[in-house]
Amino acid sequence: MQLFSIGLVQLNLDGTSRLDADGQPIPTYDQATIENLARVFTGWNYAGASSFAAAKKTAANQVLPMQAYPEQHDTDSKTVLSYRVRARSSYHPDSRRRRT
Questions:
Q1: Among 26, 35, 41, 66, which is 20 to 30 Å from 81 by CA?
Q2: Quick check: 69 and 45 in contact, CB under 8 A?
Q3: Rounded to the nearest 5°, which phi and psi values hold at 85?
Q4: pTM for this structure?
């Protein structure tokens, strides 16, 4: 995350580091954030298989979107970068939220 997106510390609009009450830079994320983000991506694998374990890399599925396998997806609540994702009792790939 630090190399390609948000960096190690929060920044002011002028690009300087935001500081806490002790004058120390404020981190953008911590270990818990990394662990929760990893849990968001659980259950995805190559498309076209009947189960996560059966999903294997083939020439055909290299160009297909990945497939969600509910038996391997972590459905518990997660907090990532101050956003809380509520737990779902079940997950189906067609139940994704749409933005308007």
A1: 66
A2: yes
A3: -105, 120
A4: 0.57
Residue 30's alpha-carbon distances to 34, 80, 93, in angstroms, are 7, 10, 29
Helix (H, G, I), strand (E, B) or coil at 83: strand
CA distance 82 to 100: 22
Tokens representing residue 24 in the block: 């120390």
State pLDDT tens for residues 59-96.
888 889 999 898 898 888 887 776 666 766 544 444 44
Distance CA 48, CA 100 (A): 29
CA–CA separation, 47 and 56 (whole Å): 8
Contacts 24+ apart (CB under 8 A), 1-8: 1/28, 1/29, 1/34, 1/37, 2/28, 6/81
